[in-house]
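Obj: model holo form, ligand = magnesium ion.
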Amino acid sequence: EKPRLLDDEEGGVLFFGASPSTSSGYGYSSMERQKQRLPVYKYRTPILYLVETHATTIIVGETGSGKTTQIPQYLKEAGWADGGRVIACTQPRRLAVQAVSSRVAEEMGVKLGEEVGYTIRFEDLTKDGVTMIKFLTDGVLLREMMDDPLLTKYSVIMVDEAHERSISTDILLGLLKKIQRRRPELRLIISSATIEAKSMSSFFQTSKRRREMEGKDLGPRMDPVILSVEGRGFNVQIHYVEEPVSNYIQAAVSTVLLVHDQEPMGDILVFLTGQDDIDAAVQLLTEEVQNRGKSCSGLTILPLYSGLPRAEQELVFAPTARGKRKVVISTNIAETSLTLEGIVYVVDSGFSKQRFYNPISDIENLVVAPISKASARQRAGRAGRVRPGKCYRLYTEEYFVDEMSAEGIPEIQRSNLVSCVIQLKALGIDNILGFDWPASPPPEAMVRALEVLYSLGVLDNDAKLTSPAGFQVAEIPLDPMIAKMILSSSQLGCSEEIITIAAILSIQSIWVSSRGAQKDLDEVKLRFAASEGDHVTFLNVYKGFLQSGKSSQWCYKNFVNYHAMKKVLEIREQLRRTAQRIGIVLKSCEGDMLVVRNAITAGFFANACHLEAYSHNGKYKTIRGSQEVYIHPSSVLFRVNPKWVIYHSLVSTDKQYMRNVISIDPSSLTDAAPHFYQHQRPSSMLH
Ligand code: ADP
Ligand code: MG
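Output (holo structure tokens):
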């Protein structure tokens, strides 16, 4: 049966009449019936037809319509995974990769890691020759290109959540477009929750001349085609606050209680920004519920953010018991990446955590910033999946209408580009400014990135990767500054220690969130505190953990997060393997912390700061851009305020705070990066 094509010219928009499903559902398992009820099911044949006949298919469909979980299964059923080929589906978020792949494995009745598998950084649950459908982050797929530039094992690559415009998605789209020219048999599916698809379509548009050339060809049409999956969302009533709220955590908690008091049954989804404010809201809400006693029973409160232990993630998807109400307090991961059944009420703070980069000061921050109208609409839409719902916006209507921007800015235009540049260079893309981007990154950011990579010794005068250092750094699946730190530790004889530090820095935190016992946590930290700073403190914690026999009891006593430490062990093992593969000598410095500090400086010299003379409030200035920064209260150097420090990252709230700080000797800066500092500032500044 051929689908009805209305407008097949020039990659225009196609709408398929949604024919009523012919199957009665009789005789199918309940899982099968559930699958057939998803909006995307009616488009199964058209989707397969378009993928067969077009190199690139763009699929737009509301969140929850079944794009992510169903389309890879349709492709497999149609034979796209035959003959050892693999169907890939990328996601911007690790948590989504895990959740979605386990759902698909369940639907197919197979064990996760066999026919259906997933790969995220430091975790590979796939089997060569067995896995047919593979979910992975877009970042991991980029890494795979370093070994297999044409991604030959994949028959179809579905780039999911394209509307998010994550930095890796954009790089990936640019590269896939190139790959397609060399491998016309490769099929791409770009799927997106919003109708920003036209710009994607024009990005994949081929030139007229090319179309003429391929005229006689029997291969797929190279022009992209757009398919719109009509959802069946229910009406969502929007409520605004009358006056701006000053504390959105408090306001969110009050709104949840109000809904629970006054509205009929149905689950609540609250959008906050990150682990900190989600934990705070969970705690506040739990206290309120306890205070109210019986009148407020039947409320289950669950957090949702990446970095949550597996068991807690799964609770979020569990159906709510009869007579109970679930409240999920989430980051914007529940905006489009994950669908929760049973949500009827949405509380939208109007904020999310977003990356911002300023090329002038060379500072990248994760900041809490207002969302766009497009995001606000997506969030509201979550309330209308099972029946008409309500969305409570914790901002005024005037604010929504007059001040919220229509669309978000692609991440590539607000990020530090160091990782992006090195990856493209490693893939042999030399002319980075001339690269075919879906959205061009700012040239100043590009120049900054080139400068840092040059100072790290990763790029040479011609902006080519240096050999071997540049290639080695590119091989390590971490930020180039961390990779350089690991590389230097090889020469300095402290790679075992530095790999431990790198593993710990790549997870969110090794401490349990204090849950109201901040003072106790601070005291416990003092047991491990090293005068050098946080990095060395991490080594002490790690040593204590090993000496305890990796005991969970020990972790509990010391406010250390046991799951996080297990993760650190895993990551550390993987990094050791990578290190050995690229020829790094594994060696311990046996307690010589000077070399450890030198290795850190070799990677992070660009993050050096100096305590302002006569500063009584711990004000530092970055050496590079003279920005005002402070040591974060969670650091062991908070209030110690050494004269010279290097930080690992910045967080900005009321001020710019340095997280994970180590004190250094300024002379090590000029040793580590003579060009960088002499070029930037007269050397007198350094003394
Ligand atoms: P889309 O990608 O279009 O947003 P999905 O394929 O993610 O839609 O979701 C389709 C349906 O599958 C959802 O309605 C949801 O009910 C179900 N689903 C997805 N993931 C899970 C999960 N981890 N657990 C239970 N149900 C899930
Ligand atoms: Mg999806």
